[in-house]
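Recap for those who missed Tuesday's class. We walked through two folding examples back to back. For each one, the amino acid string is listed first and its predicted structure tokens come directly after. Nothing is annotated here on purpose, so try labeling regions yourself before you check the end of the notes.
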Amino acid sequence: MMNQQSPTTHFRWLLAAPHRAMFFGGAVQLLLAMLPWAAEMLARLIGVALPWAWPPLWWHAMLAVYGIFPFFVFGFLLTAMPRWQGYGDLPREVFRRPWYLLLLGWGLIYLSMLLPVLRVSGVALVFVAWAWLVIVLAPIAFRAGNGRLHAVPAWVATVLGLTGWALWGLFAVTGDGGWARAGIELGIWCFLLPVFFTVSHRMIPFFSSAVLPDYDAFRPPWALFMMLGAALGHGALVLLGAAAMTWVIDLPAAALAFFLTIRWGLVRSFAVQLLAMLHLGFMWLGIALALFGVQSFAAWQGVTVLGLAPLHALVIGMFTVVAMSMVSRVTLGHSGQALSADAMTWRLCWAVQGVAVLRIAAELWPAAHGLLLVLTVACWLGVFGMWARRYVLIYLRPRVDGKAG
């Protein structure tokens, strides 16, 4: 007869390691954050106006940028950064309280859709939790050693992300939409892209060299600094009202991203599906930056094209696929399971990219825009519902090899 574990036991395992708690929160957010947008899309399709206190597009952007990915970012950095810097695994006391605050803060933010008076309190709790985690990571990031090459930029990006969230807080207090727009741009270009590129620059060559024979782990610092500069430069130009000039940065950055995609061995990575998932996610960076470059160049010529297609190529194509790939890998490895993508995980990786294509198509096919948006949201919820079912339960159980963590 199988031994049934109590809810208390499951919760204890959830808090056994930072990646468990944070990835669990991120997996839940992948679904919760999209439900309000799903309601808005259905309402538009049938011609009903929902009573939003904030513009629904801003709600959607806020939930996508700050609601989902920070859980995955902190789960990964709290697990990997100590190893980069020669620390041992972090005790649960370090992350437990900020994790509680994150959950409480986001709970209040969701409730504020019905009770707006809760909005500022929710934003403030998330800010405190984020700042707490930034403080936890600071001495690790700046410890002397080779790991600082990636640890410091990743940590600085979390500080910039905190700054972006503070700007969103100013919007919550004042209602000035300028703060919301600045917070969104800062979150994408100064927080998420620097973190995702920094992690990719370190981990893609590392993972590839571990499983591909005769692999040259190409990881030049100049590529890291160039892409970080491009991300910050793009964000700065947009914030200064010069979005029509970002092509000067975007197109060279796209060329660099395509170069790294090829140099890191996208084609060879298909020999190991779990590795190929990570390479495929990175491939979308070059596509997204090229689309941004074309859009900006066209704007410079006085032509409006592509709509939100470049943004969703970046957020769904790169950020989401890389997050799915990295989280799947860390979850399997830190639960004592084989580092191998099963058939479902591999199919879901392709399905997420299908979601990205659908969302891009919605911008390029105006006649089917509304229908494609509904289909995109439905596919997102279906994909991540299946992915969560596959991985979330792992966080509530002990490692299969009997080790701690």
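Example two. Treat it independently of the first, because the proteins are unrelated.
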Amino acid sequence: MGKHRRILNPAFHQEKLKRMLPAFYTSCSELVSKWDTLITAEEGSCELDVWPELQNLTGDVISRTAFGSSFEEGRRIFQLQTEQAELAIQAIQSVYIPGSRFLPTKRNTRMKEIDKEVRVLLTDIIHKREQATKVGESTNGDLLGLMMESNFKEIKENNGSKKLGMSLHEIIEECKLFYFAGQETTSTLLVWTMVALSMHPEWQVLAREEVLQIFEQRAPEFDELTHLKIIPMILYEVLRLYPPLVLLTPRTDKEMKLGKIILPAGVRIALPILFIHHDREIWGEDVDQFNPERFRKGVSNATKNQVSFFPFGWGPRICIGQDFAMVEAKMALTMILQHFSFELSPTYAHAPCTVITIQPQYGAQIILRKI
């Protein structure tokens, strides 16, 4: 874990994120253009399930930012990973029969085919990057290039010892993780934000006023995104009510004391994020209400300096991509608010369900109108 974070950290520095902003903008711009064409002049509005739309957006963003010039191969990997996740969920929801994963069923066979194709695609991209890195060619600032550049540097600084760097298998696994962490969690944040702002139009109006005051109708700049005040309050409140992951399960690597309890090594601890984010003693009587105002003075003030808000985890294992996710969410929400107003469709059914992340069980049907 320490080795991986040491190698990956440089790829997620603020200066590196600035270089990825054009990729964020391109993907968001394509989404806005697509939605714009769906709204006819006669109707003035359209009904759309934004859940798959936002999943495609965040998958598009991670494909561009992770693989850069290999964007098309990255998009194919995203499609395969999405299919693999759906098959894995089916397997989890099925009746468990010991040893059934080894049987040559249609689902098991397809999962093996997907895993093989993803590994072939990633191996080919990685080998090309290895050659480019060795001869000093530019990485173009994408996540894979930055990770491999940092990995190559780590090995070189340790007299060529590959044990202190990441193996091909480890790099492939990190690339696969980019998709889950970078696509799934951000898409759930965005979909619940649109649902919440549809349920609470007064906050949608405030958010849009802030966006138009700072950016008008032009593309957001990186430094300008830090000037936003209301948008982060809204995003934090959505993360409190609908954290992407409902539970963290860290494990003790040595005997440790937790309050008055002594835990031996190897014990799995359940940290129920959803329950803590909805604890009345911490958040007050309006704990179940959408109230971004609670974050006006920041997270520390909202939590009374307690560790009670951790949608991205906490401590040394806190999500390395949290800044990436927040910049992407701010960019996407800003551009949506610049171009559209939105409200819930009468067909929408509010049914959050846990499928690895908290998702809208029946989709998120939204009525879009041009600004």
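Answers for example two:
The chain is about 55% helix and 10% strand.
The mean pLDDT is 88.
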